[in-house]
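hi got a favour to ask and not much time before my train. below you get a single protein, a line of residues and a line of whole numbers that encode the local backbone shape. could you go over both lines and see whether the tokens make sense for that sequence. a few lines back from you is plenty, here it is:
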Amino acid sequence: MATGNFVLDKGYRAAGALTKFRAVKFSAAETVTPCTAITDQIAGIVQFGVTAGELAKGKGALVRTMGQSEMEAAAAITVGAAVCINASGQATVATTGARVVGTCVGHPAATAGDRITVRLAVGGALSP
């Protein structure tokens, strides 16, 4: 079972619906939106989902920006692997040209949809 260990979680406004344990990026000041490209500079990992109905009621997003976070995997990922995101904000094994967002630690993924533990490296460089 994947686990998280926060160093810094921060609340932001949500620009749209967000899926729990996926990467988000900034769309405006103090506002996050889902990541849509492997090169996106992430703000962090959203810790709770936000639906369109909840947005209408003013629910915001809690985003983990430092520490270890659970992430939804797009495919199998082994412990120790460098982690990037896909166009849906899910964790995937680092590929050339993708932005590294952390390292899989403690809990690997056997298949898509599994949750892994990622030590975050927000502001990571593009993978060579």
